[in-house]
Amino acid sequence: MKPKQVLILCTGNSCRSQMAEALVNHFLSDQWQAYSAGTRPSGYVHPLALRALEEIGIHHSGESKPVDRFRNKAFDVVITVCDDAAENCPLWLGKGSRVHIGFPDPARVEGDEEQKMAAFRQTREGIRTRVLGYLKDFPMD
To answer: Is 82 a catalytic residue?
Structure first.
């Protein structure tokens, strides 16, 4: 069976959506193919997001990209992972249902390196539980 397609949207496409793309493609690749994009892409993938993924054995060489790149692609579902993206993408013009599963931005956490890393780990685990859980329960007709 061909994997279903999911687009994960965030504002900068540097942290949450990148981690979600990597986690879905790593853990659910037999059922899902994930892509990520941003409403205002930052142009880079946050190094602590990459580090949080590496900690669990996932090497991700993502690219921060604009949502317009995917306008003509059919998705089974589009997931927004930050409140700003949910507000700035009120209508998905392509095929696919839309759901919001929001997470705080770990890049905004202040403090020392360990406090920042803790925020990225917490986001990673939240995505792993909530986004992957949602996709596992998605009808696979």
So the answer is: yes
